[in-house]
Amino acid sequence: MTIYLPTLKQLQYLVALHDAGHFGRAAEASNVTQSTLSAGIRELETLIGVTLVERTRRVVRFTPLGERIVEKAHRVLREADELGEIARAAGRPLSGEMRMSVIPTIAPFMLPRILPRLRRDYPDLKLYLREEASGSACEALQQGRTDCVLLALPYGCGDVEVDELFDDRLLVAFPQGEVGGTNGPIVAEDIDETRLLLLEDGHCLKDHALAACSHLELRGRASMLGTSLHTIVQMVENGLGVTMLPAMAIESGILEGTHIVARPIESERASRRIALVWRRASPRERDFRLLADVLRAHAPAA
């Protein structure tokens, strides 16, 4: 009996439609016409004899079986990509295309350090960067949309290999005169929990900051308002509260031109660990280890 298998192109069209939720946007992302993409998905449905997508004028809805096949298609496409990666990995180190996701509390403070060296030392590397929160970055990694993730631990990112780079201390930042005492470390009890400003949900720095505080009441009452560290800093500068900032951001000058004071917090968990992670058993492990060495060499001063 002849068995007809889906083509990679058909699976690519299906995944693109699932990601975009719209035929036009999916076709644009796939660099084909909408009719080509639609025909490819219909051919796939005819091939396997089931309906994967319910089409209406306004809504694209995947059937339960369609959702399962999309999940499998992600894995198939990822494996196909890795066939090419095996060949590339056998050639020059850190060459070809690499997609790296970086969380927003690292990207603006660390990338300017490393990109010039990477361009100079590895001119054949085409590094595509994507800034996104930890959850989205780890999901993209597992689905094969990105190759590696630069993030802060502790954070559960699934079945990954981890190369820990360095520890990044957390400091309390507040308007001059708001927190009394000496110039030494601040204890959590000195922080007014009703004035604590943190990043909104989805940013792992929020959890790291609260863990550093080690105070249940503080964890429940903190105001999680900011969408970025720069926004939080402006709130503090305008007297709206206090916050916690990573040392790499302070070293990069995020407090320059402000009247904000930063002091360490007295806590065993007053730091986050910066790490590079990638899918377990990736054929490009050598490249990722080499990239981790470059990142580690440009760690901020302790």
List its traits.
LysR_HTH_N; D-Maltodextrin-Binding Protein, domain 2; Arc Repressor Mutant, subunit A; 302 residues; DNA-binding; alpha/beta
Topology at a glance:
Layout: H1 8-20, H2 23-30, H3 34-48, E1 53-55, E2 60-62, H4 64-89, E3 96-102, H5 107-121, E4 125-131, H6 134-142, E5 148-153, E6 160-175, E7 197-199, H7 204-213, H8 216-221, E8 223-226, H9 229-237, E9 243-246, H10 247-251, E10 260-264, E11 271-279, H11 285-297
Parallel strand pairs: 3-4, 3-5, 7-8
Antiparallel strand pairs: 1-2, 5-11, 6-9, 6-10, 6-11
What does this structure look like?
The protein is an alpha/beta fold and 302 residues long. It has 2 domains: 8-81, Arc Repressor Mutant, subunit A; 91-302, D-Maltodextrin-Binding Protein, domain 2 (3-Layer(aba) Sandwich). The protein has helices spanning 8-20, 23-30, 34-48, 64-89, 107-121, 134-142, 204-213, 216-221, 229-237, 247-251, 285-297, and strands at 53-55, 60-62, 96-102, 125-131, 148-153, 160-175, 197-199, 223-226, 243-246, 260-264, 271-279. Strands 3, 4, 5, 6, 9, 10 and 11 form a 7-stranded mixed beta sheet that branches. Strands 1-2 form a two-stranded antiparallel ribbon. Residues 216-220 have low confidence and may be disordered.
